[in-house]
From TrEMBL:
Residues 11-330 form the Enoyl reductase (ER) domain. It comes from the Bacteria. CDD domains: MDR_like_2. One of its GO terms (molecular function) is oxidoreductase activity. This is Enoyl reductase (ER) domain-containing protein. Pfam families: ADH_N, ADH_zinc_N_2.
Length: 335
């Protein structure tokens, strides 16, 4: 079969290529999925560039890709919840990527039946961003009536999170640039803040929850606009100590991170707040909850662009450029 493979760390164009490889062999707990579509996430180019090597060091050539939608072609002896021919979607477990390929073997516990009202391309756009947001809002203890700021409402994560937080009954502030304001409003956000023209800190004040999808100074600024005792969940800022340990980061790295977090930790203490860095994980049962929200029309898939497999590098570069509107997807059936 054909599969995109990472051949070394560095620039995208010089370190990935489509190669002919053996079909994956399934283990007893796995299903073999014929990939119809696979979406790109920033983590994919970050892995190629080596930014994740402290967490997971690659040996080359390495498989790539976490999101998939496709058809079950085979299953292991322990799998009773899926049948050959089922149309499914999944975020594959972190230790076994490989969805940018014609076939992928996936632990059945990460897999879910595809929402009946979505195409394969649409379904492939959901798992990673959807599970990230569900897991982050669980940590944030988001409740109906809470005021939440979601940064980057036009991004892959943000465009999902705005819809999800509205479905939970929250009041949603979100940020984006001028060109995206109108369609992000259509996602249901109560107040879309144009970061090119407005200072979000003047508008989203005293919020219960900040969902930090940007990191850098935005993580510290979250504490400025948070109410006393509020909660910040970050997917792009500095890992808190507990998460850094769970990620297996060594003592020296954790110590340097603690120094870097000094100001943030102080602000969290002063506000009697909660700060958590969330590293998402695969979860087929949670995907099933999302399937219901999608089928009940609370959440739509937002597709910026689809690319054929032969243009996978362009697809990765598109996401790397940082201005996607929703999700960018590889359509394996497009030539
Ligand atoms: N920890 C985890 O488990 C986890 C999981 C998923 C994602 N992540 C991380 O979360 C981050 C976001 O992921 P993503 O998939 O949403 O990325 P993305 O789709 O590439 O985000 C692009 C969007 O960000 C917006 N944006 C850029 N700068 C902005 C700013 N200053 N203010 C407001 N919006 C801004 C852009 O809007 P404009 O074009 O209008 O600027 C664009 O729509 C990435 O760093 C990713 O690696 C982490």
């Amino acid at each position: 079969m054909k599969a995109l493979q990472i051949t070394g760390y560095g620039e995208i164009a010089k370190n990935v290529e489509i190669r002919e490889v053996e079909n994956p062999r399934i283990e007893d707990d796995q299903v073999l999925i014929e990939v119809h579509a696979a979406s790109i996430n920033p983590v994919d180019y970050k892995i190629i560039e080596g930014a994740m090597r402290n967490i997971q060091k690659l040996s080359f050539p390495a498989a790539i890709g976490f999101d998939v939608a496709g058809t079950v072609k085979d299953k292991g002896t322990n799998v009773s919840d899926f049948n050959i021919g089922d149309e499914v979607f999944a975020r594959v477990p972190t230790h076994s990527p490989g969805t940018f390929a014609e076939m992928v073997a996936v632990d059945h516990q990460a897999v879910c039946q595809k929402p009946s009202n979505l195409s394969f391309v649409e379904a492939a756009s959901i798992p990673l961003v959807g599970l990230t947001s569900v897991q982050a809002f669980q940590k944030a203890n988001l409740k109906a009536g809470n005021k939440v700021l979601i940064h980057a409402g036009s991004g892959g994560v943000g465009s999902f999170a705005v819809q999800y937080a509205k479905a939970q009954g929250a009041y949603v502030y979100t940020t984006t640039s001028t060109k995206n304001v109108e369609w992000v409003k259509d996602l249901g956000a109560d107040r879309v803040i144009d970061y090119k023209k407005e200072d979000y800190r003047e508008i989203a004040k005293n919020v219960d929850v900040v969902y930090d999808t940007l990191g850098g100074n935005y993580t510290k600024e979250a504490l400025e606009i948070l109410k006393q005792g509020g909660r910040v969940v970050s997917i792009a800022g500095d890992p808190d100590n507990e998460t850094a340990k769970e990620l297996g980061l060594n003592g020296l790295i954790r110590f340097l991170m603690k120094l870097k977090r000094f100001k943030l930790d102080q602000l969290v203490k002063d506000k009697n707040a909660y700060y958590k860095f969330v590293m998402m994980h695969a979860d087929g049962a949670q995907l099933n909850d999302l399937k219901e929200l999608i089928e009940n029309r609370y959440i739509s898939a937002i597709i910026d662009q689809e690319y054929p497999f032969s243009k996978a590098i362009d697809d990765l570069e598109h996401v790397k450029n940082g201005h996607t509107k929703g999700k960018v997807v590889l359509n394996m059936k497009l030539s």
